[in-house]
Amino acid sequence: MLKSIYFIKTLLGICFLSLFISGCATKIPSVRKTSSSARSKAWKSKRAKEGKVISGPVKFSMLPSSSSEIAARRINIKSQNISSWRQLGPQIRKSIEYAGRNPSGGLALKRKDLRLTWGQLRKSLEDLERLLPRLDINPELLGRYFVWYELQSGAEMTGYYTPVIEASLIKKGPYKYPVYRVPPDLRKARPGQTHPWSEQLRKAYRVENGKILPYHSRRAIDVNKVLAGRGLEVAWLKDPVDLFYMHVQGGGVLHLPDGRLRTAVFSGTNGLSFKGLGRIMLEKGVLKRSQLSREKIKHYLLSHPERMWELMAENNSYIFFKLTRGQPLGANGKSLMSMVSLASDPALIPLGSIVAFRTDIFPKKGSPSRRVNGLGLAQDAGKAIRGARLDYYIGTGNEFKYTAHHLKKRVPVYLLISRAALRR
């Protein structure tokens, strides 16, 4: 009996083995499970048409050499009001000087998708400077000698300019709104110094009765007048809203009653967080989103003086200035160039970077838009410029106000690094 059972089992085993070998066995497909977090990281380009970036991750991806040369040929330096590539030379030299002040091996950009040293940025600028005489005839050389890193998300581009503001060096008549220099009690941590308090206090703080405190807010300075009467005023303005926006711009050109000009240059900050007037007024239900142009915001504030200071005080950030006779300066300590200089977030696009972009601007009211296929230099920064955002410097003078205020568009952006620099 036991032998019969053993014989049957052996026979069944042979049958199953033969079925498997002949391919008759049924295969069960394996199922790969995808977590929701993994799906959320995937991204598919949603470009409605060439050059229009809708969405994507904030990361850099390298263009193929052939694509870089095509993109380089599209750059039209004349769209930036420049007749020859050679005219970029002095401005590139300013970026070279800035990059050279940093350790060559130090990291200018530290990201998972791209790491660059200050030495590589400087080498890229030097290579661009040497290439300038050849670019008028052969702009595609920018694609041949440089690697183009595309920012997949693109960047929101806005515009800024240096306004010319009516001001006086003494308080008189309508000139009653003060421009303050850096107060002597504003302290900042030394490089490398650590403290047990917050990041905000490391940026700026004060000591009162032996206690370490954040520096005075805009409300304390403008509403409570804590700095008044201390001899800190360097100028006086007619218009309080112009003063607020001079803080936002980080500087301005002051037109004095006798016709002289002085430049108010960024000199320091209270280290507190920035909040734009548009956002403040939208959150409080003062204006609708469709009404958030700078002209309408200013009109509302001046028409409601009882609310004006309270609304502006919601932005804690406060800027201090010094007066010079020179041109407006960027965050790199160098003068800016109209239609070339860009303000960026240094954590994404370091100061000193070479940036290719494409945008549309409106030169004046009622005129059609004009396409700019440009090459810019990251030479400025600002508290409001964070992440995938670029602020395009339009120029100095109130004639640039319309163009600057009517530029808000997501644009394609490329970071250019010379191939020789990457071999270092």
Automatic annotation (TrEMBL):
Main enzyme class: lyase
Keyword ATP-binding: no
Keyword Transit peptide listed: no
GO MF assignments: hydrolase activity, hydrolyzing O-glycosyl compounds; peptidoglycan lytic transglycosylase activity
GO terms classed as biological process: cell wall organization; peptidoglycan catabolic process; peptidoglycan turnover
Gene Ontology CC annotations of this record: outer membrane
Positions in coiled-coil regions: none
EC number of the protein: 4.2.2.n1
Protein's name in the database: peptidoglycan lytic exotransglycosylase
Organism in which the protein naturally occurs: Maridesulfovibrio ferrireducens
UniProt lineage: Bacteria, Pseudomonadati, Thermodesulfobacteriota, Desulfovibrionia, Desulfovibrionales
